[in-house]
Amino acid sequence: MRSSRGSPSGTSEWSGSWQGDLRLPLVLAVGIFSAVAGDNIGYWIGREYGRGTIERYGRWVVGNPERLTSMRGFVTRYGSLGVFAARFLPGLRFLAGPLAGATGLRPLAFFPANVLGAALYVPLAVGLGYAVGYGLGEYVARLERVVGEIEHLVLIGAILAALALMGWRALRAARARREL
Length: 180
Hints:
mainly alpha, disordered N terminus, 2 domains
């Protein structure tokens, strides 16, 4: 089966954009809605369950308590501007909502910053992905034919990396407990 552009169906999704298989307005709408909804859920979790939960489980996400304290300080210090800016900062992007909720940032301050940040970040990320696909698309398509479905290899690599990281952290925690 072939698409309207002559590409084999089953080509990886990210390449669908540069090949004309995906509708850009729909991709942007879904991306912005998803980003806003996800951060609003995180904000609610932060408000509902508070600092203790973030401190208890946040170290598993960010690695160490100092980094979590630094992120919390950033969101607390800059408020809604910090929520907006966090969208563009790796690591802080997904914790801005829960941290803003836990630090008591008002919903009327959080929501507009969250929406504006998503409205700027999502088109930027999609545009960069489109540009990479457009510039490297033919090479990736050729590589897919040679290697096979490349996304399966990436998924397996990501799963192995995540398992290795979790094992390493568990080993470090066990060693730290033994030293006490």
